[in-house]
């Protein structure tokens, strides 16, 4: 009998996405968990430096539309594997350059891999998953992402709290592990057949306008959380790297169990209701950040904010329902660019605002969430028009 070794797996599209998600979550979680403390302690960052770094980090996201041109010579799966390699290498070498410009450079390298992978990951997921199962499976992948991130945070927490490790070795460990899993992924998974041949050109369609607007406001709003919520915890409330990592761990423990349920819930109630709940909640969270004076209450806001991330599944499944099958890859790149238009500007500009009044940054986040709330009320009517148009063509 030919026995299967423990490391052998049956390659499927889902197993590819699971392993790729593990690499992405592991590398990005490690980079994120140590970033604020590494930037302050080793590179001597100010709020303005952090804003500039985050703007630089988002430039590859702004250029995500170029993925469609690279797909002229590379298959999506191959491109995804190369992107994961760049992400892992960028994280691995971060600790070797503890200066302002060194951290800028390694961040850009990491970000190129991260944003290209995220573009391809969305495209492949929406192509491989059926519409009636997409929300649930995307929720399952979020759970996998949380488990991988949780394991990474645990390693970081042990490294700094128990073994007194330094940044150089922790970054090398996490980035190197990501690179090894990526090589395993490439060696064990063949190319899967495309569900529909993808357009290899830039596509902007009028019927996707509402989706583009929602993506734009989502990108702008997300930057305020990604850049300034974590920085608030370190600068204003004095959280150290172990405490920040413990907070991240709590977020992901919750998501492991909650994300699949949120995915199923979105499948039942529909995208408009789910996004309405998300945006109302985010308005309250951002106002909370603006006025908070308690370190414990700030931590509660941070956890609630992270839970709402899972509801972004609804935006992806909304696009899947309105998109032509052949538009998914090209539109994924375009939507990531739209998502990052504000992201390139907001971190640097609001880094300067941060020096004068931190509250204004978060009030602006609440205003962005309010804009998203208004736009989300047009989703159901739009879906009805799309379905009606599709039915008339049959």
TrEMBL record:
Top-rank taxon: Bacteria
InterPro entries, per the entry: MFS, MFS_trans_sf
Alphabetical UniProt keywords: Membrane, Transmembrane, Transmembrane helix
- State a single Gene Ontology molecular function: transmembrane transporter activity
Instruction: Give the stretches traversing the membrane.
Output: 58-74, 79-97, 103-120, 141-163, 169-189, 210-234, 246-263, 275-292, 298-319, 331-354, 360-379
Please identify the protein, giving its name as recorded. MFS transporter
